[in-house]
């Protein structure tokens, strides 16, 4: 049974001429999905020709609560209609007061996290830059340890701790003061993971400057859905503690409930020194980011890390409402974990039917890895033609990554995975 009508394949040439004549060649997602999107609700996008797409990418993880979530839209519209402050630099506003109080009450205090909150500018890369700067300022050291296949953003500091060679090449200058170490399972589990890192730290001939910080993702989203085991994260946190190295967890993509709990590191029971959050923190796709750090690390002087857009009040309004709606109890996290297990079971079943395909991920960040580099892209393309948007990840784009809104119903998850299964069958020999 075919579960979806096959759309006539769209190509880049189907986009309005202005994308070719005016927008830079750097554009990317409109190449994967070459149609003009018009409206969206929940997990569904509709293009200008009325074609509907099930969104299994969710703004790269910026829409964990779906598009135009009505619970968040109402306070946003009320706020805008009342002429309350939209732009405020980082002046005090009622929207910001509410957000800080709510974040403290619903997220930090119940988890026993004594973090200060910095608004570093509205993107994930802004948050990573602030984290790196702070770690260097606190320790007086310059070098940072990052991991193979890490992704931390596209500004120079964030790129310096990112693995992808194509993205690094875009910097045009040397990316320095960072040293990559093997991520969990980099050697297929064959080598003791911290052997090299610990050894060179100890060895006066190891050539490693004592690092200011280690920056790590608990699940590498862009890096191909590599999942660090809880034991590995615990051992890393312990190593950092013993050697007086700050631990930064980049939770820009895996935070805000993507893996289940609000922070992706909760499951491992570790407490990072510094945490970055962005993507879904506003809850509505509005740009917003936070850098969190242990109170003792707050050595900034006023205005030392400054910026124009660090207080987008409409984002505070939706962020506050998202916390109240989804994070006042454990129910949403439990539901996400259950959905994640369901998605995983279904992906395992698809993998079993096809040689060289394996399931990977954690929580509601799940995917399929393919043996041949081009296959994941072809599967995504076939899925788009059948009405599902999903993207590839991994150093060779060999992984199909599913990031549906966490609010997606099980029925819609099944619908999308049925289409994925059909797309795999249509693509693989
Ligand atoms: C997306 C992402 C970033 C960068 O965020 P931008 O908002 O694109 O600058 C940083 N770290 C991780 C883990 C990400 O997924």
From TrEMBL:
Pfam families on file: Aminotran_3
Gene Ontology terms, MF aspect: diaminobutyrate-2-oxoglutarate transaminase activity; diaminobutyrate-pyruvate transaminase activity; pyridoxal phosphate binding
GO biological process, alphabetically ordered: ectoine biosynthetic process
EC number: 2.6.1.76
Pathway terms, separated by semicolons: Amine and polyamine biosynthesis; ectoine biosynthesis; L-ectoine from L-aspartate 4-semialdehyde: step 1/3
Domain of life of the native organism: Bacteria
PROSITE patterns assigned: AA_TRANSFER_CLASS_3 (PS00600)
Keywords of the record: Aminotransferase, Pyridoxal phosphate, Transferase
Cofactor(s) of this protein: pyridoxal 5'-phosphate
InterPro entries: Aminotrans_3, Aminotrans_3_PPA_site, Dat, Ectoine_EctB, PyrdxlP-dep_Trfase, PyrdxlP-dep_Trfase_major, PyrdxlP-dep_Trfase_small
Entry keyword Oxidoreductase: no
UniProt enzyme class: transferase
NCBIfam families named among the record's database cross-references: dat, ectoine_ectB, PRK09264.1
Record-stated family: Belongs to the class-III pyridoxal-phosphate-dependent aminotransferase family.
PANTHER family per UniProt: DIAMINOBUTYRATE--2-OXOGLUTARATE AMINOTRANSFERASE, DIAMINOBUTYRATE--2-OXOGLUTARATE TRANSAMINASE
Identification of the protein by name: Diaminobutyrate--2-oxoglutarate transaminase
Gene assigned in the entry: ectB
